[in-house]
Amino acid sequence: MAEERIKFYDVQIELDGVEYSCDGEAEYQTVNSSREEWGVEYEYEDLEIVDLSVKRWDGYDWIDAPEMANDKQLEAELIETLDY
Questions:
Q1: Phi and psi of 79, rounded to 5°?
Q2: 10-residue block means of pLDDT along the chain (84 residues)?
Q3: Count of domains in the chain?
Q4: What residues contact 72, with CB distance under 8 A and at least 6 apart?
């Protein structure tokens, strides 16, 4: 797979009963890995978030939530949603 960038807008993720809207960009990166115990080396493609802006729904409006841009659980849910 060639390096590929994905731009996303208004991808909604719910965590702990709170709804977030995510905008940004992700990129597939080639990862080299090896299993020394088996003597095997392999490559795989991994989707990584390279730019992320997050807003939180407060029941009336979307509010900027920059503190969530580094949240690992939100990032994992977003990658799972994008990497279909």
A1: -60, -40
A2: 78 95 91 65 77 96 95 94 83
A3: 1
A4: none
CA distances from 7 to 39, 40, 41, 47, 65 (A): 37, 34, 31, 12, 19
Total count of residues recorded for the chain: 84
CB 46 within 8 A of CB 65: no
CB 71 within 8 A of CB 18: no
Q: Residues 52, 75: contact at Cβ < 8 Å? A: yes
User: Taking the model in full, what pTM does it have?
Assistant: 0.78
Please tell me the distance from the alpha carbon of residue 16 to that of residue 68, in angstroms, as a whole number.
13
The answer to whether position 74 is within a domain reads no
- Supply the range of the domain harboring residue 46: 5-69
